[in-house]
Design a protein that fits this description.
203 residues, mainly beta, 40% strand
């Protein structure tokens, strides 16, 4: 154990790229401890520190209580900003609702893959990266995007890059969809398990 007056650990905590592990739970409350600097935070999520363009932030790597169906990800945990959702963080989750923080910058590969009970998601203005298969298999999903987001656009429930040349992901779609002729790439898993899909046409 570390003495409470150990100033070296307190100084390290302010610059530490935290590696949190679950420490203890009491009912629906959970505490995690960084194995590097011994900082303790309360969180409903598995988290770790990441370097976001020279600024230390937090990445969400799943929810501790898998029975939670409504997931509300905060902008700040333990005094640090949440900037990323890690790869496969919520894969195969039974969540029905997810609220993303305005601070979010990145959504990792397969982060919400096969969350087929998820019905809606709002992508905040700062999201600039969406990994391959992030919403693969989310065939009931309605997708909306902040008007201030300059990195993506959403047309007919399909996420494109800002130039509309690449299809990133898709939610619930009609049986027939019309895609702009300037599309040159469709990422893997973009239309995965969309059983309604019968025909893709290019305009």
């Amino acid at each position: 154990s570390v003495p409470l007056d150990d100033s070296s650990s307190l100084e390290l905590a302010s610059t530490c790229l935290h590696d949190y592990q679950q420490m203890v739970s009491a009912g629906d409350r959970h505490w995690l401890k960084c194995i590097k600097c011994y900082k303790v935070v309360e969180s409903d999520f598995f988290i770790k520190g990441i370097d976001n363009k020279g600024i230390i932030g937090l990445e969400i790597n799943g929810v501790i209580n898998h029975e939670i169906l409504t997931i509300d990800i905060p902008a700040v945990i333990g005094g640090q900003t949440v900037v990323s959702i890690g790869a496969e963080a919520f894969v195969n989750s039974h969540c029905t609702s997810v609220s993303l923080p305005y601070t979010l910058v990145s959504i990792g590969e397969k982060a919400f893959m096969n969350c087929n009970l998820l019905t809606s998601i709002y992508l905040p203005s700062k999201v600039e990266n969406i990994g391959v298969g992030a919403f693969g298999g989310c065939y009931n999903l309605s997708i909306s995007l902040s008007l201030s987001n300059s990195y993506f656009c959403v047309l007919n429930n399909i996420i494109y890059d800002s130039s509309t040349t690449k299809i990133i992901a898709a939610g619930n779609i009609d049986s027939n969809i019309l895609i702009n002729e300037n599309v040159v790439e469709i990422l893997p898993h973009a239309f995965e398990n969309n059983s309604n899909l019968e025909c893709i046409r290019f305009s």
